[in-house]
Amino acid sequence: MTFVEYVLIGFFVGILTTAPVGPVNVMAIQHAVYGGFRQGVYVGLGAVVADTVFAAVAIFGVSAITNFIEGQINLIEIVGGALLIVFGLKIWNTHPHLDKDGHGWQRGFLGDATAAFFMAITNPGTVIAFVAIFGGLGEFRPPPGDHFGALVMVSGVACGATTWWIVVSAAVSHYRARIDDRWLGRANHIAGVVLITFGALIYLKLVLDLTLLK
């Protein structure tokens, strides 16, 4: 695969893992509502740093145990697909709340980014999601020893996550009067469906592989 393809795959993974509305998304939306576009982006950039760390740990960790993965690829994909479906169902059933009475969001770049970073980095579910996704990529993942390719894919994750925060902050600051808990719930339903679909596609691939072997 080419480096452009690695970037695009990483870009999609970055959006996929960032889109579910959890505490950091709610924090970013609140900042965008009360402080404007830049305040939302500040929060997002802190989360991007955490997601980039998680992505690097996941993809290099997966590469480091490639021999084990190659011997247990079906088991890895079964577990990874199940985890993605479970995460998708959990996100679908999550009901985030937006504090409409909030104020005082003008804390500046460092304070907002730092708060978001620690909020994101202490969420172990994110790194599990990255491991499940990268483990399920199979041949679409950089081969063992291709450290540059792995770095390119991690860069793609960072770009995808950053793009997500920019788009969300711009949309929220522009349509701030329309943002409510129902809107957040719809966003989680969409993210949940995407994760569940991704997990289902992994199982479909397994079935097709087994069918071709017969």
What report would you give on this structure?
It is a single chain. By secondary structure, this protein is an all-alpha fold. The chain has one domain (3-213). The protein is built from nine helices and no strands.
* Quaternary state of the chains: single chain
Using the CA coordinates, give the radius of gyration: 18 Å
Q: Helical stretch count?
A: 9
Share of helical residues: over 70%
| Structural class estimated from helices and strands | mainly alpha
Strand portion: under 5%
Give the number of DSSP strands: 0
Whole-number count of domains: 1
Main β sheet profile: none
The gross shape turns out to be globular
Strand and helix order: HHHHHHHHH
**Uncertain runs with pLDDT below 50, 5 residues or more?**
none
Termini, distance in Å? 28 Å
* Chain-averaged pLDDT: 76
Feature tags:
single chain, 214 residues, mainly alpha, 79% helix, globular
